[in-house]
Amino acid sequence: MGKFKEDAQKLLKEVGGKENIAAVSHCATRMRFVLNDPEKADKAAIEKIPAVKGTFTNAGQFQVIIGNEVSTFYNEFSEISGLEGVSKEAGKAAAKQNLNPVQRAISVLAEIFTPLIPALVIGGLILGFRNVLEGIPFGFLDGQKIVEVSTFWNGVNSFLWLIGEAIFQFLPVGITWSITKKMGTTQILGIVLGITLVSPQLLNAYAVAGTPVADIPFWDFGFAQVNMIGYQAQVIPAMLAGFMLAYLEIYFRKVIPQAISMIFVPLFALLPTVLAAHIILGPVGWAIGSWVSDVVNAGLTSTFNWLFGAVFGFMYAPLVITGLHHMTNAIDLQLIADFQSTNLWPMIALSNIAQGSAVLAIVFMHKGNKEEEQVSIPAMISCYLGVTEPAMFGINLKYVYPFIAGMIGSGLAGMFATLFGVRATSIGVGGLPGILSIVPKYYVPFLGAMLIAVVVPLLLTYIFRKKGIFNKIDPVDEATGLLYSQEG
């Protein structure tokens, strides 16, 4: 008998049987099911299966956390069920049957930005390190910055900007490529389109505000003039242009004979898109993006910024559950493009820390529960490094009260950071390392906010559990007064 045969049989039964499975696949740690009727899945029974470390539903997929041996489990599940797996992408496509139009839009947004996350993370780390080199006057250096006293580190700082510029200023190239990848169209055309938005031939987007209107270069077509303006770091213009390119290519593939499609499909898709990008889509997208960033920035710098910060900090974790948090990536990037920094990202990093601290409290209170520690300890570490899903879906939402404690801690930390005007120069680096993204002059208040995000969830998680607040399934042993886990 295979190692997981019995557990696989139980899982097949509790998800509603073979007839309830529209598609099944797996990733690095999870089984991913697209269920015909999600209500037939008995989550409580599934989470009691020894091999299962937790469950959650995301983007229309019912996901079962197995761990590093998921591939072995998956093979035995397939043998027992007689179901052939599908690719992860095919699974996502099938999952759309369980999504409403708003969820589908959010899913598309997530699929565009997810491939860009590795670049955004490394870019954020690099810009954060450059903050230390060129932005902080050190007392032991007589108030000078590192780049002012060291030729070597000045050279390193200058060299690292090569990577930072490639990631953030040329972000539209990544966005247009990601859209063509997601839409199944020609990716090199997406790359070419992105380059036309950030070409050195154009006036850099960062220089537009300081350039008199009369000095802005333009293309003169005789009957019309088009400004030669670049869209460095702009998100919405790139997205609008990327989708136009993809849909034009899909359309022309259908109407142009295959014998000449290699020539005319790229021509008729790319040329009109580039024209539209500089005449209509770019200016409109810039205006929309600027309006959104102005509204968010105004809210976070207004008299009531403390309220805005508290609400956003409190609500960010629930946004992650729904997938709506992917929208904040676009807003953050637009804020950086318009104001050279963002006041939104610091609160996201603080939310990561707060949820991680809630898990840390669970680790201490459930000490000795070896089975749960296989999930809780890695999830806590992941959270402190900026990835919250394992912690929220594996622990905090399971018990509810640590999730709420994390939300409250995040809200208070967000309010504190907002009151002090904390801003970040980049995104992508969350959790404890998120301090590397912070503008150096805000390091001290951000450290204060981090302390709040650690201490408040720790204390509230303990209090909520002991007093039974928001806690229905994780009781205290009344005989001894000790905290214990129902599963321990």
UniProtKB/TrEMBL annotation:
Domain named PTS EIIB type-1: residues: 5-87
Residues making up the signal peptide according to the UniProt record: none
GO molecular function, one term: protein-phosphocysteine-trehalose phosphotransferase system transporter activity
Keyword Translocase: no
Keywords, sorted A to Z: Cell membrane, Kinase, Membrane, Phosphotransferase system, Sugar transport, Transferase, Transmembrane, Transmembrane helix, Transport
Domain PTS EIIC type-1 stretches: 107-480
UniProt entry tagged with the keyword Transmembrane: yes
Catalytic residues (UniProt): C27 (phosphocysteine intermediate)
Pfam assignment, any one: PTS_EIIB
GO biological process, one term: phosphoenolpyruvate-dependent sugar phosphotransferase system
Protein known as: PTS maltose transporter subunit IIBC
